[in-house]
Amino acid sequence: MVPRYSRPEMTAIWSADNRYRIWFAIEVFAAEAMGRTGAIPAKDAAKIRAAYDADVLGEIDIAAIDAIEAVTKHDVIAFLTWAGSKMGPEARYLHQGMTSSDVLDTALAVQLKQSADLLLADLDALLAVLKRRALEHKNTPTIGRSHGIHAEPTSFGLKLAQAYAEFDRARVRLAAARDDIATCAISGAVGTFANVSPEIEAHVAAELGLTPEPISTQIIPRDRHAMFFATLGVIASSIERLATEIRHLQRTEVLEVEEYFSPGQKGSSAMPHKRNPVLSENLTGLARIVRSAVTPALENVALWHERDISHSSVERFIGPDVTITLDFALARLTGLIDKLLIYPERMRKNLDRMGGLVHSQRVMLALTQAGLSREDAYASVQRHAMKVWESDGKQSLLDLLRADSEITAHIRPADLAMLFDLDHHLSAVDTIFTRVFGPGA
After folding, report:
1. pLDDT tens digits, one per residue of 221-259
2. C-alpha angle with apex 126: 121 to 130, nearest 5 degrees?
3. Cβ atoms within 10 A of the Cβ of 441, count?
4. Cα dihedral sign for 259, 262, 265, 266?
5. Tell me, what DSSP letter sits at residue 309?
6. Cα–Cα distance between 100 and 115 in angstroms, integer?
7. pLDDT band at residue 178 using 50, 70 and 90 as cut-offs
8. Does 147 qualify as catalytic in the annotation?
9. 19: Cβ contacts below 8 Å, ≥ 6 apart
10. Residue 233, SS3?
11. Using CB atoms within 10 A of its CB, is residue 149 exposed (0-12), middle (13-18) or buried (19+)?
12. pLDDT at position 149, please?
C-alpha cells in the first residue's frame, strides 16, 4: 500500500485494528452460539458477549500482540492470548473447536465485502459523472477512429455513453463477486464440523452479514477469491481503456479534450508550456498494478488437499494493495471526467480536415443502389479518395466526385451533396442513448 495512492476509508478496512476487531467479533459470535447449543456454559457465553458489547478490548495494542507473536510464531494465538488477558476466566471458551482458518478466512471475507461496498459506491459516482457528461455532449460531432485513423463521424456523447455501459457492466460483475466472496466458514479442522456444529457457523454468518460456505475444507475455496480479483482486474482494464482514449485525444495534433489544468500547476520542470495528461497516464499505471494480482489469485486456487498456506502471503499483499489502488483509481477517474475540458470546435476542425473522406461509405452505398456493383462502386470512390488523402485534405472529395462524369451519370451533383450530411451519422444517437440510459435520455 502506497500512501500517495490511498484513500483513508479503504485503507482503514485493511488496518490491523479493523482486522483484530473482526477476529474478536467472530470469536464472540461463535461463543455466543455455543452457549445457546450447550457446547459451552451459557453464563460464560453471556460474559463473553457482554465483554464484546462493552468494548473490553479498548484500544488494540498492536505492539503487545506482535511481541506475543514473536514468541508463538502464530498470529491468531498471539491475538487470542492478548484478548484473553483483557477478560476473565471465560476467555478459555474462545476458539472452542475452531481452527485458525475459520477466523482468518471469515475475516478476509468481511474485509473483501467491505472493500466491495466502497468500490461499488465508487462506480456509482463514476457512472453519474459519465452520464452527465454524455448527455451534455450527446450530439457533439467528432470523428470516430479505427486503427487510429479517421473512420466515420460519431458523437463525443456516444464515446462517453460507451464508457458508461462498460462500467455499468463492471458494477453488475462486482456486485456478483461481492456476494460470491461474502461467505463464512466456521467448520473446524479439515471442514468436517467434528468439534464445532454447523449451527455455530450459521450464527456467525448471520451476525456478520455473510453466507455459510456450503462445503469448506479447512479453508474457504479460493475460486471465490480468484473471481473477485479477476473482476477487479477487468474493472482496471476498463479504467485504462478510457484513460488511453483521453491520452490520445489530448495529443497536441488532436487536442479534442484535455485534462483540467489547475492554477499554479506545472507540466514540466524544464518546459513551461507543457500541459500533460498526467492523470490518465497515472491511471494506466495503476490499472497494471490491479491486474497484476489476477494471476496470483488464480494460482491460489490449487492448494494441497484440505489446505496449505501458500495462498496466505499472496493475499496479505493483494487484498489491501489491489482494493486500495482500485478505490483510488476510480475516484481519480471520476474527478478527471468531471472536470474534463472538451473542445467541440477542435473536434469539428479535425472532422473536416480530410476533405470529406469520412463520407466515402455513403457515396459507395449510393452508387450500388444506383446500379453499380460493389466492387466498381468501391473502386470509383477510392480512386478519388486517394487523391484527397495524398493532398492531405486540401482537395475536396465532393468536388472530385462532382467532376467525374461516371459518378454523376449515376448520382446527380445535388444528390451527391446530400450524401455529405453530417447529421445522417448521428441519426441513431437517441436510440443508442435509450438503450444505455433508458427512456428519456
Report:
1. 999 999 999 999 999 999 999 999 999 999 999 999 999
2. 150
3. 17
4. positive
5. S
6. 22
7. very high
8. yes
9. 107, 111
10. helix
11. exposed
12. 96
Is pLDDT of 1 > 80? no
- Say if residues 69 and 56 touch (Cβ distance below 8 Å): no
Q: Is 55 left (phi over 0), alpha (psi -120 to 50) or beta?
A: left
Give the residue carrying C-alpha cell 455499468.
168
Per-residue pLDDT tens digits for 276-323: 999 999 999 999 999 999 999 999 999 999 999 999 999 999 999 999
Mean pLDDT value across residues 321-332? 98
Q: How far apart (Å, rounded) are the C-alpha atoms in residues 405 and 139?
A: 36
**Cβ(165)–Cβ(103) below 8 Å:** no
Spell out the residues 6+ positions from residue 214 whose beta carbon is closer than 8 angstroms to its own: none
CA distances from 303 to 100, 217, 295, 422 (A): 17, 11, 15, 59
Alpha carbons 78 and 393: distance in angstroms, whole number? 74
Cα Rg, the chain, nearest whole Å: 30
Query: Is 237 an annotated catalytic residue?
Result: no
Percent above pLDDT 70 for the chain: 100
Displacement of CA 248 from its chain's centroid (Å): 21
| Active-site option among 147, 269, 405, 427 | 147
pTM strictly above 0.85 = yes
Residue type at 15? S
For 427, counting Cβ atoms within 10 Å of its Cβ (0-12 exposed, 13-18 middle, 19+ buried), the class is exposed
Residue 221 DSSP label: -
Three cell numbers, residue 213: 460456505
**DSSP per residue, 127-196:** HHHHHHHHHHTTT-EEEEEETTEEEEEEEHHHHHHHHHHHHHHHHHHHHHHHHHH-EE----GGGS-SSS
User: Do residues 108 and 297 lie in contact, with contact meaning Cβ atoms separated by under 8 Å?
Assistant: no
Catalytic residue among 268, 310, 313, 391: 268
Output the pLDDT for position 441: 84
Closest CA to 227 of 176, 185, 177: 177
Q: What is the DSSP letter of 258?
A: E
DSSP 11-74: HHHTSHHHHHHHHHHHHHHHHHHHHHHTSS-HHHHHHHHHHHHTTTT-S--HHHHHHHHHHH--
